[in-house]
Amino acid sequence: MFEKTLIxxxxxxxxxxxxKIGNILKSFGSRSICLFHVSEAGSLFRGSDIxxxxxxxxxxxxLDLTVEIRTGSDHIASAIAEAALQEGADEIYLKAKRHWxxxxxxxxxxSRDLLRLSDIPVxxxxxxxxxxxxxxxxISREYLIILYAxxxxxxxxxxxxxxxxxxxxxxxxxxxxxxxxxxxxxxxQKKKIDxxxxxxxxxxxxxxxxxxxxxxxxxxxxxxxxxxEQIKAxxxxxxxxxxGFLAAPMGETAERIVTGTKASIFLVP
Amino acid sequence: MLQDHFRKEPVFLLSxxxxxxxxxxxxxxxxxxxxxxxxxxxxxxxxxxxxxLLAGFFFLLFTLAIALSKYGxxxxxxxxxxxxxxxxxxxxxxxxxxxxxxxxxxxVSEPLVHFLQPPPFLTPTSPDAAAFAMRYSFFHWGxxxxxxxxxxxxxxxxxxxxxxMPALISSCFxxxxxxxxxxxxxxxxxxxxxxxxxxxxxxSLGFGALQIHSGFxxxxxISSAISVTIGIIIIxxxxxxxxxxxxxxxxxxxxxxxxxxxxxxxxxFILALGSTxxxxxxxxxxxxGYINNLVxxxxxxxxxxxxxxxxxxxxxxxxxxxxxxxxxGLFIARISRGRTIREFVLTVLTVPxxxxxxxxxxxxxxxxxxxxxxxxxxxxxAGEDVSLxxxxxxxxxxxxxxxxxxxxxxxxxxxxxxxxxxxxxxxSLTTRGSIVVPLYKKVIWGLSLSLVSxxxxxxxxxxxxxxxxxxxxFPFMLxxxxxxxxxxxxxxxxxxxx
Lengths: 269, 498
Known about the structure:
The complex is a heterodimer of chains A (269) and B (498). Chain A is of the alpha/beta class. Helix content of chain A is 36%, strand content 23%. A ten-stranded mixed beta sheet of chain A has the order 3-2-1-4-5-10-9-6-7-8, sandwiched between helices. In chain A, helix 7 (183-204) links the parallel strand 7 and strand 8. In chain A, helix 8 (220-230) runs parallel beside helix 9 (252-260). Chain A is globular, with a radius of gyration of 19 Å. Chain B is an all-alpha fold. Chain B contains 20 helices and no strands. Chain B has helices spanning 2-8, 10-28, 30-68, 87-98, 100-116, 127-141, 143-162, 174-177, 184-220, 226-246, 249-273, 276-292, 294-299, 307-335, 341-373, 378-384, 389-394, 400-429, 439-492, 494-497. Chain B starts with a helix and ends with a helix.
């Protein structure tokens, strides 16, 4: 599923950092990388030398990855989203920059726009999983902790094929819901959700090293953030719902999770 | 031992403890109580009088939205349940519980008092002041009080009949509190409901006793000393407690129907013998003015001129309705099982309101007619003693003595039925929503209602009654805002329950 990944790169990107990213993506199953650079309208570097991208390509190719280079222009997020579609990428990889991790966990406007606009899944790499240092080898899937947040409805089944790309990891399934209006309905609902979670766990069990599940009551974003910290999740997999009238651009829950967590996000539109 | 008892009866012990402390304070340190109550009341009015207006308007919009939404067809009970009472019996009971005494007390005097003492931007006793007086009488007794009652009664009816929870205010908090509904947080909600009910009912009983006393003084010239009012409360207490202890629920229904019929006869009599065309014109034009200005009236606090007037009247009324709402709400909920939300809301909002408008047009309108066209100085009497206005008004009709006696009879029956229902409701609120209330609780709550009423009358009379209604209503208003949210949550889950 993660066969081809599009990585937006900017001038000044460090090759060694890109190598670590390449390693991670390879461990998730990527075979092909498309490096994509967008020049802003009026930029001094527009259309000029792209030899720095060639250097990045060489670094990634050393990892046995097929690498292509593409450039675009104008509105950055739109150009990336469009290029990902044209190139037939399976996902877009976005790295939350280090200084963001230290100061705040907010995403930049380009990332937010891209999460809103993209029609293909976006992987936002935040603090976890930590990029391996020099000589540390690759990230092993059996040490990864995946938090799969689901509404247990048809829409939230969309991320399942992508979830399967994290096979071998520990998959924790989380469902957050409202409290029912009376104890009897609450009990029935709890039981029903337990059954659905059990079904989902049984379905995923053959593919993962460990599968666990839980249901929680309350605010979905708050609970996802809480559980992801509790289990130290490396990646949160969740579907992005079509936004409602007056809702936040990418959906309030997704937006709060994306901006608030230290784990990486795999957001499936 | 005490801890065990508290675990079993937290709501009863907490609420009776607070009320008994209040009564003891009123008897032992009336000045301290008066100062404390005045300070709390003053702070609430200074900072939150606007909130009463906004909340009242919000409750009206919310009830209409629920009734007209897809949830309007949801039944208050199981899907195939039928209403327990006939339409007339149902309307008569909810009217008797919700308005009874107040309507008799204020029907003549309120338009007259507004006419004599309007806000500063109007000239007293002018035609403008008369139109203003009628419009505000409609407003204070119109659709808003019933919207306030509807929030509580609809919530209780929905959560108890549809969701199988105990008939308690706290039951409606399950979507927010979960299992804590049955522990201290839920108990506190019920204590607030008891607190509001005791002071709201005591206010009405105080009004009723004052007016019965005024009627007797007017008819037979008996002393106007406060001890006589206290004597009237004691006699009425004996009557309503006997009724509550004997558990004559059917009796309340029969008395309510009888009272509505008697009140309608009285109304027809005054309409026929008064200036009928003037009354009907007044009804039509005031109704038009009321509908046309509903939004403005709902949110108008007159911050530049007339702010004091708005606080003294509109805010007091809103607080009074809110403090009545747990009792009336529980009572209306109990008699409304089997009706759909739409039928329930639209009937409760319109039928009693229409009757009230006719009542004010006939009584208040006739009084204004006498004042404006016959040079009868009724407004001055109402300005000096509002409880006397009705009897002074009857003086200008044939069979005045009999009319006054009928009014006293109506007041007494309303007094007994309201106090009886309130005693049973308070008992039920403090017995985990059970209909079977132990005798000692009925006695304690019956006596508490009368004692609070006496304490308030002795410490500050009518002002103290109004002050306590506003104070007791404040926390319950916040409870009601949460009720709107939980009711919405409950209804929005209906589709998942199918």
